[in-house]
Amino acid sequence: MRCSIGSRSGGNRSGDVAARNCQRLRTALRRKRIAKAFGDRAIAELAGLPITVDAETDRYAWTTTLQLADQFELTPHDAADRELARCRTLPIAALDEPLRDASPARGVALLGTS
To answer: According to the model, what pLDDT value does residue 34 have?
Structure first.
């Protein structure tokens, strides 16, 4: 699985988003949670998405996001993703148990559940 990350010119942080998602896929692969072929397909699909950066995420990183991370024992990245899903009323896809537990507790729907 190979991830190509562009430069971070002009303050655009979409490379950060790509790097975070690549890291998550590589971690899942290393922990044998996904197959290499799945990771490769996921990266190809993610590369084609119109990913944007949410300015509010940075604004609340030191307050709401850290409080959420502490409360549910999440990484700051997972807490930010969960909070963004809540603010935008979007479901979240997660294999990580703490993130899956924290999401419904704060009104975020999980993908892949009935």
So the answer is: 92
